[in-house]
UniProtKB/TrEMBL annotation:
It comes from the Eukaryota. It is found in: Secreted, Extracellular space, Extracellular matrix. It comes from Cnemophilus loriae. This is COKA1 protein. The keyword Secreted applies. Its main location: secreted. Residues 148-168 are annotated as: Disordered.
Length: 296
């Protein structure tokens, strides 16, 4: 699958779009460059929410790899978005061209960095990476696929994406300007704990709630109004973590005053009246002369 980004990410084709090498190469030849800004954090979030889901061709049992190719420093928080992917067991390779920030590439990429970070001076030089990168990717997939058979020699918590360990059917309801309610169907094998991670899609500090495995709902409060939030529900077992259940929704805007009415009382005064805004504690009233505008 491939997505291209600037300030707004765009899916070029999904994982399930092509089934042969020739079809993929033809799609690459027909790709048109998308100029613009470099919002890498937003792009990684797009990949997580749009491209790495079953209806886009992501198979639950398959290893999840993301290759980031960038020629500049990100204008938003790429590290935060990358950490979210890595926390969900997704491995990131970072390839920089020309003006890419190598320190940022090393932050975004998964360990070990000597295998996952690459940097070249110009686009034609990317061809020199193809052979090595192909071998490294295939080796990493094999290594990760066999983690569970390594026993105590493996330090990382294995990620088991089997459906018996993963919750389903995330429902987000009772959305207000400051809160929302989450509920999900537990997996066949109840987990020991749930980690619920949520944060604004445009960037912000992730917050986390840990729940007992018998619980399958949560009320999120103290949210920011009129903001799109990404949510992940991750089941945690003694020796494994199930596949995260993800969702996205926006809080409502704060209520506004309505039905503004103006009545002139004298040569230098006006009376304003309106229907109250629910929850408002104060009002700020601004006025200026029109059309040229005097002092507010």
């Amino acid at each position: 699958g491939l997505s291209q980004y600037s300030s707004d990410p765009r899916t070029e084709w999904d994982l399930s779009a092509y089934s042969t090498r020739e079809q993929v190469l033809e799609a690459v030849r027909n790709l048109r460059y998308k100029g613009g800004n470099t919002f890498t954090g937003l792009a990684l979030t797009h990949v997580l929410e749009q491209n790495l889901k079953p209806d886009a061709g992501a198979r639950l049992e398959a290893e999840k790899l993301v290759i980031l190719l960038t020629d500049g420093k990100s204008q938003d928080d790429a590290n935060l978005a990358a950490q979210t992917l890595k926390n969900l067991g997704i491995e990131i390779f970072a390839i920089g061209v020309k003006n890419a920030d190598e320190a940022e590439l090393r932050q975004v990429a998964s360990e070990p960095l000597e295998l996952t970070v690459y940097n070249v001076l110009d686009f034609p030089l990317l061809s020199s990476l193809v052979g090595k990168l192909t071998r490294v990717l295939c080796t990493r997939i094999k290594e990760r696929s066999h983690k569970e058979t390594a026993g105590s020699a493996v330090k990382d918590t294995p990620v088991n994406t089997g459906p018996q360990l993963s919750p389903t059917d995330l429902k987000i309801s009772a959305v207000t300007s400051k809160s929302m309610h989450l509920a999900w169907s537990p997996p066949v094998r109840p987990p020991k704990k749930y980690r619920v991670v949520y944060y604004p899609s445009k960037g912000g500090t992730p917050k986390e709630v840990v729940l007992e495995g018998a619980v399958s709902s949560l009320q999120l409060s103290n949210l920011t109004s009129h903001t799109e939030y990404l949510v992940a529900v991750i089941p945690v077992y003694d020796a494994a973590a199930g596949d995260g259940l993800r969702g996205v929704t926006s809080t409502l805007p704060l209520s506004s005053p309505r039905s503004l009415r103006v009545s002139e009382l004298s040569h230098n005064s006006l009376r304003l009246s309106w229907k109250a805004a629910q929850g408002a504690t104060h009002y700020l009233v601004l006025c200026s002369a029109a059309p040229d505008g005097a002092e507010d």
